[in-house]
Amino acid sequence: MAGALTDEVKSAEGGFLQLHKDYLDANSLSNDLLEFNKAGIERFESLKFPHPKHEMFTFVNTREIASTEFALNPGGTCSADVVKNHVYACSEQSCLVLVDGVYQPELSDLSALAGKVELADFEKAFSDEKLKQSLVESLKKETDVFSALNAAFAKQGVFLKVLPKAQINKPIQVLLVSTGAEGKPAMSAPRFCVHIGKHAEVKIIVKTVGDGNSYFSNTVQDYFLDENSSVIFSQVQADSKESWNFSKTFVRLNQYSRFKSTHAMAGSKLTRNNYQTHLCEPGAELTMNGVSVLVDKEQVHQYIQVNHHAPNCISHQYFKNIVNDKSRASFDGTVVVDPGAQLTQSDQLINNLMLSDEAHADGKPNLMIYADDVKCAHGNTVGQIDDEQLFYLETRGLSASVAKTLLTTSFARSIIDTVEFPEVVEDLKSLLLSKLERNHA
Amino acid sequence: MLEIKDLHAGSEDTEIIKGISLTVNKGEIHAIMGPNGSGKSTLSKILAGHHEYEVSSGSVTYNGKNLLDLEPEERALEGIFLGFQYPVEIPGVNNAEFLRMAYNAKRLHKGEDEVDPLDFDEILDEKMKMVEMDHKYKARFLNEGFSGGEKKKNEILQMAILEPKLAVLDETDSGLDIDALRIVANGVNNLINENNALILITHYQRLLDYIKPDYVHVLSKGKIIKSGDKGLALELEAQGYDWLTTTTN
Ligand SMILES: Nc1ncnc2c1ncn2[C@@H]1O[C@H](COP(=O)(O)OP(=O)(O)O)[C@@H](O)[C@H]1O
Ligand SMILES: [Mg+2]
């Protein structure tokens, strides 16, 4: 056993296996959680870090993560200012704060949610044998090695149950704060799961921020929508520039449920999101909009699967990227329509705006249709600033640089304006649009 | 005000403007007519500073300055306005916000303070009334989904807001029904006076029933082949362009 481990330490996975040993030594975990964490590390070991041609990581280079030595961050503290700065006014009484993946009751405020939700921390939730078994089982089928890695280290996440018929007007904000460690960069494994009961209507904002420089946050979030429920969702990624951010978002939609989301990305050294969505029962509707605005060497990679399992479901995807300098954006999206999923309507559109010759915007849209009566459309465009539009604005007295800023911001705003929360829209203007307000010359 | 001397210009290897000379003074209205493809739009875009076209020889002087040295926005700020034959659509740019930006750019250039959205709204309302434009076009994206007529009205609205010294209107009449034509022409007539000048590019003479030119020039294959007064436009109307183009060939 010890010998096997020494050999493995030399492999890319070895550092993480050692880190996991340290994690088990440092924490006295309940047997239930231990079972889950062990299933996670086993899955991680068998999946291994992606090789350069791995189909789920076509545009993402994970070599640096595999070769970096990370520290375990005990987590649990961040300055109160960070929380104050990043909790939106609309969510002051409905916010959950996780620092390095650890839920922080003192920094959170759920007063506006009283009687409408039930919250359980991770260990408590695992005492439910059925839930634990289903999570352990689903790990055996996990294809994303980073999601398996999350399960190996997930310790203090939350389970939120929105009670059936609950109508929650104030958006629930989940604030994920990552802190950097001294010396080695820290790894954290935030995990939360939201179960939305029948006929419940809820708005959710997930914002990720950094309180420290270099870290690797590797999040998994699950959303289970029971019949006729609705989620309006907004993701704001505002991490430290020197961070690696990986996340997997799982969405399961039951009959007539609706999930409408906007994913706004400010980018970092390496940001990769994996969205696995399943329209499981008739009448479900999924709308995903996304916008990334990247400069310098920032990267954002979106990997999306939309699975139509049932007839009469609708899915829309509309993603826009603006890439400047040496930044990179990619969109790797697949829509799968199962054999019985007749009358599916699905569209997927990706528009990229390139502001520099050295930037990259890659797209891999993919349709796999196994039903015959469906309406599916997809498109992927890459373009520069339109010369005729620029000329038009200049002939009205706007300088070339003002005109370019206007054209680029308007490109991003068509997505930003779909966000339903005014505070978030304002935040995105300073987070994303301000990046476009510089001399284009 | 404007003096074009033996201008030759084109795009890459093709010469499109093949020796045009034209002088426009304050208070004058010049109509430029000519068949499709004769270079009318190209000339107008060269005057506005489109980077796609290169001037190989000749000169353009505007109020004593070498116009060709100026960037498009400098030309605009100095009082040149181009009404486009095909105004581009710019999704995502709010029409009223854009109009205010243009208005304020001009004010700043003149050393005046910018106006805030509320004050601008009053100015905009008044100008929109003049071109009989519905207020709903304020909130729309710039030209996006506008009908041909609304696009042209929006051009004249911009002219009204920017109050140019020299306006070049490229086929502002094409694609307009008779009502829209009357509205647009009235708008233009309201905006011209003895202190500014107008170059009116048109394919048909019907616009000239509403806006009376002092001079009419016929452009063909990149050259002005005939100049005259209003009467020339009527001759063209009666006989078409053929008699001109064939006799000069
Ligand atoms: N950018 C360009 N590159 C090459 N040829 C052009 C370009 N713009 C215009 N032309 C050509 O120049 C000629 C004049 O075009 P244009 O000025 O649009 O004519 P008009 O407005 O009189 O109809 C046409 O033959 C057209 O195809
Ligand atoms: Mg033309």
Give an account of the 3D structure.
Chain A folds into two domains: 2-281, no CATH class; 386-441, no CATH class. Helices cover 25% and strands 37% of the residues of chain A. Chain A has eleven helices and 21 strands. Chain A is an alpha/beta fold and 441 residues long. Chain B is of the alpha/beta class. Chain B has one domain: Rossmann fold, CATH 3.40.50.300. In chain B, the strands form three sheets. A six-stranded mixed sheet of chain B has the order 6-9-10-3-11-12, sandwiched between helices. A four-stranded antiparallel sheet of chain B has the order 2-1-4-5, with helices on one face. In chain B, helix 3 (95-109) packs across helix 4 (117-130). The longest helix of chain B has 15 residues, at 95-109. Chain B is globular and about 55 Å long. The mean pLDDT of chain B is 93. Classes of the chains: A alpha/beta (441), B alpha/beta (249). The A-B interface holds A 386-389, 391-400, 402-403, 406-407, 409-411, 413-414 and B 45, 48-52, 71-73, 75-77, 81-82, 84, 87-88, 90-93, 98, 101-102, 105-106, 109, 141, 158, 162. Bound molecules: adenosine-5'-diphosphate and magnesium ion. Magnesium ion binds next to helix 1 of chain B. Adenosine-5'-diphosphate (ADP) binds next to strand 2 and helix 1 of chain B.
Approximate helicity band of chain A: 25-40%
Q: Name the CATH architecture of chain B.
A: 3-Layer(aba) Sandwich
Largest sheet of chain A: 11 strands, mixed
How far is the first residue's CA from the last residue's CA of chain A?
Answer: 61 Å
Mean of the pLDDT scores of chain B?
93
Largest interface: A-B, 23 and 30 residues
Helix content of chain B: 25-40%
Question: Count the strands of chain B?
Answer: 12
Count of helical regions of chain A:
11
Biggest sheet layout of chain B? 6 strands, mixed
Instruction: State the end-to-end distance of chain B.
Output: 32 Å
Low-pLDDT residue spans of chain A: 1-9
Instruction: Provide the structure class of chain B.
Output: alpha/beta
Integer average pLDDT of chain A:
92
**How many discrete structural domains of chain B?**
1
Rg for CA atoms of chain A: 22 Å
**Into which percentage range does the β-strand content of chain B fall?**
25-35%
Q: Give the assembly state of these chains.
A: heterodimer
